[in-house]
Protein backbone atom coordinates (compact mmCIF):
# COMPACT_ATOMS: atom_id res chain seq x y z
CA UNK A 1 0.00 0.00 0.00
CA UNK A 2 1.41 3.40 -0.99
CA UNK A 3 2.07 5.88 1.76
CA UNK A 4 0.27 9.26 1.87
CA UNK A 5 3.60 11.05 1.53
CA UNK A 6 4.21 9.47 -1.85
CA UNK A 7 0.83 10.59 -3.09
CA UNK A 8 1.43 14.15 -1.97
CA UNK A 9 4.83 14.21 -3.63
CA UNK A 10 3.28 12.90 -6.84
CA UNK A 11 0.67 15.63 -6.80
CA UNK A 12 3.30 18.27 -6.20
CA UNK A 13 5.40 16.93 -9.05
CA UNK A 14 2.40 16.92 -11.37
CA UNK A 15 1.52 20.48 -10.37
CA UNK A 16 5.09 21.62 -10.98
CA UNK A 17 5.11 19.83 -14.31
CA UNK A 18 1.88 21.58 -15.30
CA UNK A 19 3.35 24.93 -14.34
CA UNK A 20 6.54 24.26 -16.27
CA UNK A 21 4.61 22.99 -19.26
CA UNK A 22 2.28 26.03 -19.24
CA UNK A 23 5.19 28.47 -19.03
CA UNK A 24 7.02 26.76 -21.88
CA UNK A 25 4.32 27.22 -24.53
CA UNK A 26 2.80 30.30 -26.13
CA UNK A 27 0.45 31.03 -29.04
CA UNK A 28 0.76 33.55 -31.87
CA UNK A 29 -2.43 34.89 -33.45
CA UNK A 30 -2.85 35.66 -37.13
CA UNK A 31 -2.58 39.41 -36.59
CA UNK A 32 0.63 39.26 -34.56
CA UNK A 33 4.25 38.25 -34.70
CA UNK A 34 6.21 37.32 -31.58
CA UNK A 35 9.70 38.14 -30.38
CA UNK A 36 11.22 35.71 -27.82
CA UNK A 37 13.58 37.47 -25.39
CA UNK A 38 15.79 35.58 -22.97
CA UNK A 39 17.14 37.64 -20.10
CA UNK A 40 16.80 40.82 -22.20
CA UNK A 41 18.44 39.33 -25.28
CA UNK A 42 16.31 38.43 -28.34
CA UNK A 43 16.64 34.75 -29.25
CA UNK A 44 13.85 34.04 -31.72
CA UNK A 45 11.24 35.67 -34.01
CA UNK A 46 7.97 33.85 -34.71
CA UNK A 47 5.94 35.16 -37.66
CA UNK A 48 3.60 32.24 -38.31
CA UNK A 49 0.44 31.82 -36.21
CA UNK A 50 0.06 28.75 -33.99
CA UNK A 51 1.42 27.05 -30.88
CA UNK A 52 5.15 27.49 -30.07
CA UNK A 53 7.60 26.58 -27.30
CA UNK A 54 10.07 28.60 -25.24
CA UNK A 55 12.31 28.09 -22.24
CA UNK A 56 10.16 28.25 -19.12
CA UNK A 57 10.57 31.10 -16.65
CA UNK A 58 13.54 32.69 -18.42
CA UNK A 59 12.06 33.52 -21.85
CA UNK A 60 9.67 36.44 -22.38
CA UNK A 61 7.36 36.71 -25.39
CA UNK A 62 6.73 40.21 -26.83
CA UNK A 63 3.80 40.44 -29.28
CA UNK A 64 4.15 42.89 -32.16
CA UNK A 65 1.28 43.78 -34.51
CA UNK A 66 1.88 42.74 -38.10
CA UNK A 67 -1.18 44.39 -39.60
CA UNK A 68 -1.05 47.63 -41.62
CA UNK A 69 -1.11 50.51 -39.13
CA UNK A 70 -2.38 54.07 -39.51
CA UNK A 71 -0.35 57.23 -39.04
CA UNK A 72 -2.42 60.43 -38.92
CA UNK A 73 -0.24 63.47 -39.48
CA UNK A 74 -1.52 66.83 -38.15
CA UNK A 75 -1.94 69.66 -40.66
CA UNK A 76 1.16 71.76 -41.24
CA UNK A 77 2.24 74.68 -43.40
CA UNK A 78 4.66 74.02 -46.27
CA UNK A 79 6.22 76.62 -48.57
CA UNK A 80 6.23 75.64 -52.25
CA UNK A 81 8.95 76.60 -54.71
CA UNK A 82 6.94 79.62 -55.88
CA UNK A 83 6.83 80.85 -52.25
CA UNK A 84 3.15 79.98 -51.86
CA UNK A 85 2.23 78.82 -48.37
CA UNK A 86 0.25 75.58 -48.27
CA UNK A 87 -1.68 73.88 -45.49
CA UNK A 88 -1.03 70.17 -46.05
CA UNK A 89 -3.02 67.39 -44.38
CA UNK A 90 -1.46 63.95 -45.02
CA UNK A 91 -1.58 60.43 -43.61
CA UNK A 92 0.48 57.25 -44.01
CA UNK A 93 0.02 53.48 -43.77
CA UNK A 94 2.86 51.26 -42.54
CA UNK A 95 3.64 47.81 -41.13
CA UNK A 96 6.43 46.28 -39.07
CA UNK A 97 8.43 44.01 -41.36
CA UNK A 98 11.41 43.32 -39.03
CA UNK A 99 10.25 42.76 -35.42
CA UNK A 100 13.77 42.38 -34.05
CA UNK A 101 15.05 45.63 -35.56
CA UNK A 102 11.84 47.37 -34.54
CA UNK A 103 12.20 46.19 -30.94
CA UNK A 104 15.88 47.14 -30.74
CA UNK A 105 15.49 50.61 -32.34
CA UNK A 106 12.07 51.88 -31.21
CA UNK A 107 10.34 49.30 -29.05
CA UNK A 108 6.65 50.38 -29.25
CA UNK A 109 3.93 51.52 -31.65
CA UNK A 110 3.58 54.86 -29.85
CA UNK A 111 7.28 55.62 -30.28
CA UNK A 112 7.09 54.53 -33.92
CA UNK A 113 4.22 56.95 -34.60
CA UNK A 114 6.18 59.83 -33.09
CA UNK A 115 9.29 59.02 -35.12
CA UNK A 116 7.37 58.48 -38.38
CA UNK A 117 5.50 61.77 -37.91
CA UNK A 118 8.82 63.60 -37.76
CA UNK A 119 10.11 61.79 -40.83
CA UNK A 120 6.88 62.35 -42.77
CA UNK A 121 6.90 66.10 -42.05
CA UNK A 122 10.50 66.33 -43.26
CA UNK A 123 9.71 64.39 -46.45
CA UNK A 124 6.69 66.63 -47.14
CA UNK A 125 8.77 69.78 -46.80
CA UNK A 126 11.57 68.43 -49.01
CA UNK A 127 9.36 67.17 -51.85
CA UNK A 128 6.70 69.92 -51.88
CA UNK A 129 9.34 72.62 -51.50
CA UNK A 130 10.73 71.67 -54.92
CA UNK A 131 7.49 72.18 -56.90
CA UNK A 132 4.97 74.94 -57.43
CA UNK A 133 1.56 75.36 -55.87
CA UNK A 134 -0.22 74.29 -59.07
CA UNK A 135 1.81 71.08 -59.25
CA UNK A 136 0.85 70.18 -55.69
CA UNK A 137 -2.83 70.96 -56.07
CA UNK A 138 -3.48 69.70 -59.59
CA UNK A 139 -0.74 68.61 -61.99
CA UNK A 140 1.67 66.28 -60.17
CA UNK A 141 -0.10 65.28 -56.99
CA UNK A 142 0.02 61.52 -57.58
CA UNK A 143 3.72 61.55 -58.44
CA UNK A 144 4.53 63.74 -55.44
CA UNK A 145 2.81 61.31 -53.05
CA UNK A 146 4.85 58.46 -54.56
CA UNK A 147 8.08 60.38 -54.00
CA UNK A 148 7.17 61.16 -50.41
CA UNK A 149 6.35 57.50 -49.75
CA UNK A 150 9.65 56.33 -51.22
CA UNK A 151 11.68 58.77 -49.13
CA UNK A 152 9.78 57.92 -45.97
CA UNK A 153 10.14 54.18 -46.65
CA UNK A 154 13.94 54.48 -47.05
CA UNK A 155 14.27 56.38 -43.78
CA UNK A 156 11.89 54.07 -41.88
CA UNK A 157 13.72 50.93 -43.02
CA UNK A 158 16.34 51.40 -40.28
CA UNK A 159 13.56 50.92 -37.72
CA UNK A 160 12.27 47.71 -39.30
CA UNK A 161 9.23 49.52 -40.73
CA UNK A 162 7.85 49.38 -44.27
CA UNK A 163 5.77 52.36 -45.45
CA UNK A 164 2.90 51.03 -47.55
CA UNK A 165 1.27 54.28 -48.67
CA UNK A 166 1.31 58.05 -48.20
CA UNK A 167 -1.63 60.21 -49.18
CA UNK A 168 -2.16 63.97 -49.21
CA UNK A 169 -5.71 64.41 -48.03
CA UNK A 170 -5.79 68.18 -48.52
CA UNK A 171 -3.38 70.79 -49.85
CA UNK A 172 -4.76 74.30 -49.84
CA UNK A 173 -3.88 77.90 -49.16
CA UNK A 174 -4.16 79.23 -45.60
CA UNK A 175 -7.53 80.69 -44.70
CA UNK A 176 -6.49 84.34 -45.10
CA UNK A 177 -4.88 83.62 -48.47
CA UNK A 178 -7.93 81.65 -49.61
CA UNK A 179 -10.21 84.57 -48.79
CA UNK A 180 -7.98 86.94 -50.77
CA UNK A 181 -7.94 84.54 -53.72
CA UNK A 182 -11.72 84.10 -53.60
CA UNK A 183 -12.18 87.87 -53.45
CA UNK A 184 -9.87 88.36 -56.43
CA UNK A 185 -11.69 85.62 -58.37
CA UNK A 186 -15.04 87.22 -57.50
CA UNK A 187 -13.82 90.63 -58.68
CA UNK A 188 -12.52 89.07 -61.91
CA UNK A 189 -15.83 87.30 -62.56
CA UNK A 190 -17.77 90.52 -61.91
CA UNK A 191 -15.51 92.39 -64.33
CA UNK A 192 -16.07 89.73 -66.99
CA UNK A 193 -19.83 89.84 -66.35
CA UNK A 194 -19.86 93.63 -66.78
CA UNK A 195 -17.85 93.28 -69.97
CA UNK A 196 -20.29 90.69 -71.31
CA UNK A 197 -23.23 92.94 -70.39
CA UNK A 198 -21.59 95.90 -72.16
CA UNK A 199 -20.93 93.80 -75.25
CA UNK A 200 -24.51 92.52 -75.14
CA UNK A 201 -25.86 96.07 -74.80
CA UNK A 202 -23.72 97.22 -77.73
CA UNK A 203 -24.86 94.29 -79.85
CA UNK A 204 -28.46 94.93 -78.89
CA UNK A 205 -28.13 98.60 -79.86
CA UNK A 206 -26.57 97.63 -83.19
CA UNK A 207 -29.38 95.17 -83.93
CA UNK A 208 -32.02 97.70 -82.86
CA UNK A 209 -30.46 100.45 -85.01
CA UNK A 210 -30.22 98.11 -87.98
CA UNK A 211 -33.87 97.07 -87.53
CA UNK A 212 -34.99 100.71 -87.25
CA UNK A 213 -32.99 101.60 -90.36
CA UNK A 214 -34.44 98.69 -92.29
CA UNK A 215 -37.95 99.56 -91.07
CA UNK A 216 -37.48 103.18 -92.21
CA UNK A 217 -36.25 101.99 -95.60
CA UNK A 218 -39.15 99.55 -95.94
CA UNK A 219 -41.72 102.21 -94.96
CA UNK A 220 -40.15 104.73 -97.34
CA UNK A 221 -40.15 102.21 -100.18
CA UNK A 222 -43.76 101.30 -99.37
CA UNK A 223 -44.79 104.96 -99.33
CA UNK A 224 -42.96 105.53 -102.60
CA UNK A 225 -44.68 102.53 -104.17
CA UNK A 226 -48.04 103.73 -102.78
CA UNK A 227 -47.52 107.22 -104.17
CA UNK A 228 -46.55 105.79 -107.52
CA UNK A 229 -49.58 103.52 -107.52
CA UNK A 230 -51.78 106.40 -106.42
CA UNK A 231 -50.35 108.62 -109.15
CA UNK A 232 -50.98 105.91 -111.73
CA UNK A 233 -54.54 105.54 -110.41
CA UNK A 234 -55.14 109.29 -110.48
CA UNK A 235 -53.77 109.49 -113.98
CA UNK A 236 -56.00 106.63 -115.07
CA UNK A 237 -58.98 108.27 -113.38
CA UNK A 238 -58.28 111.60 -115.05
CA UNK A 239 -57.88 109.81 -118.36
CA UNK A 240 -61.24 108.12 -117.90
CA UNK A 241 -62.84 111.37 -116.84
CA UNK A 242 -61.38 113.15 -119.84
CA UNK A 243 -62.50 110.37 -122.12
CA UNK A 244 -66.01 110.47 -120.61
CA UNK A 245 -66.13 114.25 -120.89
CA UNK A 246 -65.13 114.07 -124.52
CA UNK A 247 -67.90 111.60 -125.29
CA UNK A 248 -70.76 113.42 -123.46
CA UNK A 249 -69.89 116.77 -121.89
CA UNK A 250 -73.44 117.33 -120.64
CA UNK A 251 -73.61 114.00 -118.78
CA UNK A 252 -70.17 114.59 -117.33
CA UNK A 253 -71.22 118.04 -116.08
CA UNK A 254 -74.38 116.48 -114.60
CA UNK A 255 -72.36 113.72 -112.87
CA UNK A 256 -69.90 116.21 -111.42
CA UNK A 257 -72.72 118.38 -110.11
CA UNK A 258 -74.48 115.38 -108.51
CA UNK A 259 -71.22 114.40 -106.80
CA UNK A 260 -70.85 117.97 -105.54
CA UNK A 261 -74.45 117.94 -104.21
CA UNK A 262 -73.81 114.63 -102.43
CA UNK A 263 -70.64 115.93 -100.84
CA UNK A 264 -71.89 119.39 -99.94
CA UNK A 265 -75.54 118.84 -99.00
CA UNK A 266 -75.36 116.76 -95.85
CA UNK A 267 -78.27 116.06 -93.57
CA UNK A 268 -76.58 117.67 -90.57
CA UNK A 269 -77.21 121.40 -90.82
CA UNK A 270 -75.48 122.27 -94.09
CA UNK A 271 -75.72 125.94 -94.92
CA UNK A 272 -74.72 127.84 -98.07
CA UNK A 273 -74.80 131.51 -98.76
CA UNK A 274 -75.26 131.64 -102.56
CA UNK A 275 -77.33 133.44 -105.10
CA UNK A 276 -80.33 131.44 -106.37
CA UNK A 277 -79.11 131.79 -109.96
CA UNK A 278 -75.64 130.54 -109.00
CA UNK A 279 -73.91 128.07 -111.24
CA UNK A 280 -73.98 125.55 -108.35
CA UNK A 281 -77.82 125.32 -108.49
CA UNK A 282 -78.18 125.29 -112.25
CA UNK A 283 -79.61 121.76 -112.27
CA UNK A 284 -82.23 122.78 -109.69
CA UNK A 285 -83.78 125.31 -112.09
CA UNK A 286 -83.37 123.28 -115.26
CA UNK A 287 -82.68 119.51 -115.46
CA UNK A 288 -80.66 120.09 -118.56
CA UNK A 289 -78.36 122.44 -116.70
CA UNK A 290 -78.80 125.23 -119.19
CA UNK A 291 -80.01 128.61 -118.00
CA UNK A 292 -83.60 129.48 -119.03
CA UNK A 293 -83.93 131.48 -122.25
CA UNK A 294 -84.44 135.22 -121.82
CA UNK A 295 -87.95 136.51 -122.67
CA UNK A 296 -88.21 138.48 -125.87
CA UNK A 297 -88.81 142.22 -125.36
CA UNK A 298 -92.25 143.51 -126.21
CA UNK A 299 -92.63 145.88 -129.13
UniProtKB/TrEMBL annotation:
Signal peptide: none annotated. Keywords: Hydrolase, Membrane, Protease, Transmembrane, Transmembrane helix. Belongs to the band 7/mec-2 family. HflC subfamily. InterPro entries: Band_7, Band_7/SPFH_dom_sf, HflC, Stomatin_HflK_fam. SUPFAM superfamilies: Band 7/SPFH domain. It is a single-pass membrane protein. Residues 23-185 form the Band domain. HflC and HflK could regulate a protease. Pfam families: Band_7 (PF01145). The lineage of its organism: Bacteria, Pseudomonadati, Pseudomonadota, Alphaproteobacteria, Hyphomicrobiales. Gene3D superfamilies: Band 7 domain (3.30.479.30). It comes from Bradyrhizobium algeriense. It comes from the Bacteria. This is Protein HflC.
Amino acid sequence: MRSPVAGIVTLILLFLAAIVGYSSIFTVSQTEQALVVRLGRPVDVVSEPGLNFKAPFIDTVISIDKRILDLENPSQEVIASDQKRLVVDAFARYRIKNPLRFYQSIGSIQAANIQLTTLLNAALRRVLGEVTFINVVRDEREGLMTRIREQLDREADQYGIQVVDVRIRRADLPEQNSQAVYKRMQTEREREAQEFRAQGGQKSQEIRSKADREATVIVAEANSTAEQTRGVGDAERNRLFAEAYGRDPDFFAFYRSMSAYETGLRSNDTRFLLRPDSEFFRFFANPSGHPPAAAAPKP
